[in-house]
Amino acid sequence: MALTGLEIFKLLPKKNCGECGIPTCLAFAMKLAAGQAEIDACPYVTDEVKAELSEAAAPPVRTVTIGQGEKAVKIGGEVVMYRHEKTFFNPTLIALYLSDDMPAEEVDRKIEEVKLASFQRVGQTLEANLLALEAKSGSLESYNSLISKASKINLPLILMAPVEILEKVIPDQKGRKPLIYAADLENYEKMVSLAKENNLPLVAKGKSLDEVSELTEKIKASGFKDLVIEVEAQGLAANFKNLVLIRRAAIEKKIRSLGYPALTFAFDPQGNEWKELINAAVQIVKYGGIVILSSLAPWKALPLFVLRQNIYTDPQRPLQVEEKFYRIGQADKNSPVLITTNFSLTYFIVSSEIEASKVPTWLGVVNTEGLSVLTAWSAGKFNQDTIAQFLKKQAMTDLVSHKKVVIPGYVAQLKGALEDELPGYEVIVGPREASEIPSFLKNWS
Amino acid sequence: MLVEKLLNSYSGKVKEVEIGSGGLKVGGETCLPFYLWEGEMPNKILFGLEILDQEPVDWADSLARLYQDVWKEPVEWAKKCFEMGAEFLHIRLTGTHPDSKKHDPTQAADLVEEISKAVSLPLIVYVSGNKETDAQVLQKVADRIKDSRLLLGPADEENYKLVVAPVSLTNHNVIAFSPVDINIAKQVNILIAQMGMPLERIVMDPTTGALGYGLEYTFSIMERLRLAALIQNDEMTQFPIICTVGQETWKTKEAKVSPDEEPTWGDEEKRGISWEVVTAITLMLAGANLISLRHPESLRLLKEARSEFISLGEGG
After folding, report:
1. Omega prior to B154 cis, within 30 of 0
2. Tens-digit pLDDT profile for residues A30-80
3. Looking at CA atoms only, how far is residue A346 from chain B in angstroms?
4. Interface residue A378 vs chain B (CB under 8 A)
5. Among candidates B34, B215, B223 on the partner chain, residue whose Cβ is nearest the Cβ of A310
6. How far apart are CA B271 and CA B268, in angstroms?
7. Which domains occur in chain A, in start order?
8. Which CATH architecture best describes the domain B42-148?
């Protein structure tokens, strides 16, 4: 997105006054392009140029904030097409859809599901982010009663209603900073002024990429930019294509009019929940900003939340698990003690193999700052000192009545040094590969 | 139209590999997975079911209910998978491992031959991962089956010579295996190619991480392999990819534990299927050509999803 030094130079006053601390405007332009200087250092540049430059420096996908307080969420701000190029920053927001013409019991049941759909995994809480409330009955009273029901759980809202209804409910709701839905080519003037007056983010929707692009240009011309975009489409394939092309437009083709987070519905037109699961998974993997689901039963919510966590994990900073002894099965005083590192993938693979063996086991996870066994060993973070310290700190002697410790086969060379470090202990070299753990444990005596 | 400005082009193409006996091919795509508005996928992604050469010991209850009437008889099990709509069979010869000692190499070859006569599906055969027995088992199997192109492996950085030698002298294809590492993946392909294995007979297995158990690593390695194949036209990455999704997903806790143990996780069988389907669809989007599964409902759902994706190539 950044302008080149020469492009910036053309916008500067070319006085070569040096007041910015850099002798020439050209040199200053080069520094700006490299991100080593701020445009504010130039006393002579016009406000329009400042705005243009800060626009050029903005990320290709705009970041939009929805909600207020601890549950406020951000979406957009992405800078790459593929996660290995850097990372994806703001995880897809998962929203539950409710409408004011649904039977009361259905609304209650779905709200209860959202409350229950909260899972702990690798130190993170996985849960839904938004409630999307649609006014379908046409009655302000029903819509208000849906909003007050939904307010029992503390999640930001997407308010989906005609302008006339939104105008009536927003005065009470604007403090919670809901996302309002939606501006189209017909109603956008009213919608934008409502969003602007109340400082709320707004969805801009259209039937095609071209229509959405035209609409966001019009809205931007009126000075409003806190937009989420939607290309109205149904089903797996059309939504997939739109999401790929929107992200590509913003990042590879530098088309500003599509540089906003995208909203999609995962619903299946025939109400098939399995298809909805698959649609949502595709949208999470491929660039979905806000994905709206019709229900969050746990068999659907858990895999989707874990998928989102996987895709949005920073590839440069692997997830770590807590340093401690993990009790697997009904491990007791006589159970084997296995030691590994706290790289989450290592932990997951080792613990799932232990579980598969059905042999109750204590798994000691040493803090190696998220490195795997061999990497941690070569970095000096997994050796006789760190393992011995871990066993003392975590009081292995309180857990088991024996003094046998199994280390990964890849660090077999630590056996001698570790036994020197821990007099009275027997260090056993375990398998190199996790897949061999079950047969190793079955032969444990 | 904005769309016209948004199309990309690709310089590379994934190689086509023929499997089975009916001229069926996998691979051949000239675009990222399902970007059918700007390239082609001439051959479908195929979904198969996994069977073992002996009774499984640790399969989830949801799977036991489906297969326990046949899983002592691998040939019957194979027939059942065919009836359930499998497009290939992923046969794991775990019984050839010295720990199990159920089958010697000749018995393993007998079994693969019986299965190939009983069902007309392409067969993908993985040996047990034991250095002492694998090469012999592969040799026997490769020599025995003459009228169907098997996919045999895994050949990795250590054992590739022993695996590739017997396979290269037949018409069969080889699985180039790497442990979630793009550099090793490429290296194994190069080593296999240097042994004279024709390039249109290599399929890669980059190691499947299940949802929540390393999926993101497999996903990114596959994306990088596909970008290298299609955009950089790097020939040593232009091979179809197999993902053993069923095997990896059904051993996770999430696919197995009962609601008694995890009351907030909901129905066990639905959860297992959703774990398998979400893992598979994610890897489809990263470039998988062959996906092996365990649950027939996953198979059905994924075939439906595939049809919807394919509509993108028909002006959809």
Report:
1. yes
2. 888 777 788 888 889 888 888 888 777 778 999 999 999 998 999 999 999
3. 9
4. no
5. B215
6. 5
7. 5-57 (1.10.15.40), 64-311 (3.20.20.20), 324-442 (3.40.50.11600)
8. Alpha-Beta Barrel (3.20)
